[in-house]
Amino acid sequence: MSDTETIDMIHEDALPGHESRMRDKPDWEPRYPGSGRLQGKVALITGADSGIGREGADVAILYLCEHDDAAETKRIVEAEGRRALTVAGDVGDKAFCERAVAETVKALGRLDVLVNNAGEQHPDKDIRDVTEEQLKRTFQTNFFGYFFMVQAARPHLKAGAAIVNCTSVTMYQGSSELLDYSSTKGAITAFTRSLSENLVGDGIRVNAVAPGPIWTPLNPFGGSTPEKMETFGENTPMGRPGQPNEVAPSFLFLACEDSSYMSGQVLHPNGGTIVNG
Q: Is 181 a catalytic residue?
């Protein structure tokens, strides 16, 4: 599905959320000029319309239905002299993942970096409130989507390629109100470590980033309860939520050759929370 087509998605809340509608905009601009560490490479990033998805070389931007945010991200990438492709669709659909990879390779010529970043979360205080539909949907997006994307990308990834998955501090700490979400993040961490063992012999590195509370559209548009949003991020040692430009360097580091001796690892930009993982 191309970015000119409309996707009608119905959620029990406003997810995945529009950055353009946020009153307090996230800080996404890089703090330092680009260094060309991904020069000549092509990155495909899921959930890349806003939040922590903005970083890379020539970029294929996969997103669900936030056309305004995706168009702005495309403009920003192109303003840096990079090529950008926007592709709208549901990563929980295996056929879409295959089509998105095919469009990326056709338009941008290759694929060197896959960043699995798309995710959704729905807070519930009582496990009995988590419906079967919600449980399946959360795993479909957060875990199956990662698996499908790797399957689709694998034929195009050569030695020197990198895969970076987005897990979460909730995988290590747990989360009383995000039972299904934190479970998907546990699956992603196990997937990262296992996939690393599977691909490292072919020269393909697989790592992950486990952000803490980050100020993106995910939480204010229904990913957290209103009560949680009043003190969002204040329970970290730093006493505040992180910003996208405090997380993106972790993804960049794992995507480029600076991390050439790392695979199967997880970085933790989480405001100082010690998780020993």
A: yes
